[in-house]
Structures are given as structure tokens and as C-alpha cells.
Amino acid sequence: MHRPPAPAPLPSTDPADPGPAPRRPSALRGLRVRLTPLLLAGLLAAGCASVVNPVSGRSELTVMSEADEVALGAKEHRQILAQQGVVDDPALAAYVDRVGQRLAAQSHRAQLRWTFTVLDSPEVNAFALPGGYVYVTRGILAVLRDEAELAGVLGHEIGHVTARHGAQRATRQQTAGLGVLAATVFGAAFGLGDVAQQLSSAAAAGVVASYGREQELQADQLGAEYLARNDYAPQRMIDVIAALKRQEQYAAAQARAAGREPASGGNWLASHPSNAQRLDQIRRIADGYPTPDKPVEGRSAYLAAIDGLDFGDSPAQGLVRGRVFVHGGLGIALTAPAGWQLRNTPSTLLAAHPDGQVGLLLRPVPPQAGRDPRALARKLYEPVELHTEARTLHGLDATLVQGRRKLPNGGSQPFELLVVDGPQDKLYLLQQAGAAEAVRREQAALREAAASFRPMSEADRQLARPWKLRAAVLPPGGWARLAADTPLPPGEAEALLRLLNGADPVDGDTRPAPRPGDRVKTVRAD
């Protein structure tokens, strides 16, 4: 949850009208970007033209010229920077840009003005926009092992741009009025169901997920080719896909431990290749390229570049620590009911029941929306009944608002929200969300979560210490010993460190697992 300088108008939370949703690719389903209506209309009005694909050398019909790609990429780039935020680390930004520019200069579209950006997101994600805009998250940097793997991720995304995959999708989908312009390399489902869907950018945009199977495999192939052209071993693309496989295995184990169903391939389109398929195909592809005599690995340079990088949630957006959410900048905290899950976005915190059907939303009220609880309720709903009751919550003035709102079918449904005067003279909404029956069933837990909203205590301030990636030496006691010196949850720490360092080889992995005495990544409380 940001402390935004200029908040947007207060949106609706009607399940039938979710309004503008928070822009975090956080269900880990991949960041999707749609063509804005005016821009799409202009492209369609222009009709299809024939261009030569820079990779295949063949002519293809398109609704997007290169100039259109550049214009669209530049426009969406500004929006992504505003929505996601950029890691404030000039040295890291310069390092990632240097690796990316080297690869792009040896690509099929070296003439583009390429832009490489590190987004301030803990999600394991990378994507590209037409026109030469490539993004990696700090989450993906945490699971990569060295510069060669970073180059593999960047090369894959450069491949999507050089092969004009975004333009191809926009052309094929022109009759539907949609364009999918970005896709993830890595991802795993969190599994929050309907409530999370209300909050996800995918639900708000209503767009189609990631690239198809052939486009992903072509991007893998181009990634291997661009590695080979830049003195990296093309086989390191195998390690990039292996990292995806490890991430999936870790996410599945975490889901089972939490009593959730592991993510299935349904989170991507059925045409998307499975990681097993990609490993098999990229192994054959990579072996077709010559391997440099002294391939660049760049492990020391990579570990130095990411040393001190935020790990997990960003302190600027608040931190989830188990069942507790703390935001040092805003001075607030909230505790979720036992078994519930906390999901933090740049503008909203969601405490969700494990079945994903009901949750509590916490968000700041924009100043322009005013401070009258009854007026706020009218902005959010069309109430046919409205009642308010003054309360005190951990020393804070609060107002309980209850009533009934109109439904499209002519009926009505009860609603309840808590309006709280928080620290720093900021106003907050705590809203119940979900199907009426689920809200009734979980009413006690929803009220428990709302009642936990509080100014930060000393214990909360200790939890609010940010976590950082640090380089360390793997001790003789191995991962268990290293895990004991981290702030990570004891039941997860060792498995997470093994994931971050690629310590569990998977089929096709070309790199040996770290051994005691090797430099590795760990997590420290700052």
C-alpha cells in the first residue's frame, strides 16, 4: 500500500462493477497490458499493412507499423512506471541496462531505442512491450544465479520484441478489440479466487493471458541465439527455464503446506508450453549454437549488483509478515484471522479467506473524497438504507457504516464498512467484500480483522524492518545453518534459501549446486 502523493478518486467495490483495480501483477498470472481504446481504434482504422518480420525475413500482415510499436510502447511504459514503481538503485539499473543493451545490439532489431527497467515488485516476473521496452522485477533478480541467467531472461524478452509478437497478437485479435502486449517468463498462482480477481489487473482489463506456445518457444530460441552472440553459453537458457521449474515446485509445496491446491497449467493459456516441454526444446535448440571457449558467467558481478536489494514486500508499500501487515511510513498495522492470507498491492490491502470467496479490503481515502462516512458510503454504493455508529478503535476515532445497497436485478444486499481516522490525519476504509452468503458466513472473522486495525506498536515496528538480499558464504552447516541467521519464517527459510540459490537441481540444469564455502544469497533484516 503506497502513500500516494495524488490519490485517484475513490473507486467502487461493487462485485458487479470492480472499477479500476490495483495494478500489481500479483496473482502471479503475468502482467497483461491492453491497447487503450483510442489507440486501438486508430490502429484498426488504419487497416492491415504488410511488413517484413525482422527475425523470419517473411512478409506478414499487421495493424502495427514499427512507428506504432514505438509509440504504443512509450505510452504504456509511462503507465507501468506510474503503476509499478522502479527500484531506486542507480548502480543496479545501470548494470541491468548494460547487460540488456549488449544483447539488444546483437539482436535482429538493434536500431530500436531499447529501454531496460527494474520494477519494484517482489513477483518473479519479466515482460516486454513493443518498441523495445523490457522489464524485470526485483523478484526475478532474487532467484537468478548470475549474469548469464539474467542475460537469458533479457534475451527471451528481447526476442518477443524482435519477432514482433505483440504486433502479431494485436493483429490476430483486432476483431475482439484487444491486444496482449506483455507476458511473463516466470509465474506461480497464489490462488485467492474471486476476491483476488476483483483486485487483479487481469480482471479489470479483461484481457487474454500471455503469448502462445510457438511464440514462447521462439523467444526461448532467440534468447539462446543472443546469448551465443554475446559470449554467454547458449545452454544457460536451459538454466533460465530450470529456474522456472524450481519456482513452480516451490510454489506448489507452499500451497500444499497452506492447505491450498497447487497451481495448475490453467493459469496460463493451454497453448503455453509447460516448463518440461520448454526444457526439452531449449536443450536441443541451445546445442545447435556454438559455445564460446570461455563463456561469461558473471556470478561475482551479479551478486555485487543485487547486494542490498529489497526482498519480499517493499517498505514503501508496507510489509506482510505472516498474519500481520505493517506500514512504517503510514504508521499502521492490521492482523488477519488465523488461516487467512494477506495480499498487498500499491493501493489496497486484502485479507482473504483461504477459499478466496470473501475478504476485507483496507485502503486510504483520497483527500478529494472528503471525510464524511455517510457521503463515502454513498460514493461506494447506492444505499437504500444507511446507519452509522461512532466507535473507538485502539485509540482512533472510527465510524461503523451499515446498510443495504441496490442490486442490478432490483433487489438489495447488506453492506458494512468501517471508516477510521488513522495516524497522520489520514482516513481509511475497511470494507467487507465477497458474495453475500460468504460474507454472512465469515462475518465474525471479517469484524475481527477490521477491529485489529491499529497504530503501530513497538512489536509492529520490529516487524517493519525491511528484508534485504545479501551475499554470504555458505557455512559448513549448510542451508539449515544459514537459514537460522535470517528473519525468514522458520518453516520456510531453508526451502526459500535453496530456491534463491538454485540448490535443488532439476532436469537439464547445467550448474552445480552451491557447496559450503561458496558465495551465496541470503536474507537479512536491515
TrEMBL record:
GO cellular component: membrane
GO molecular function list: metal ion binding; metalloendopeptidase activity
Keyword Protease found: yes
Region (Disordered): 1-26, 502-526
GO annotation (BP), single: proteolysis involved in protein catabolic process
Feature: compositional bias, Basic and acidic residues: 508-526
Cofactor(s) in the UniProt record: Zn(2+)
Domain Peptidase M48: 91-285
Protein name: M48 family metalloprotease
Organism whose genome encodes this protein: Aquariibacter albus
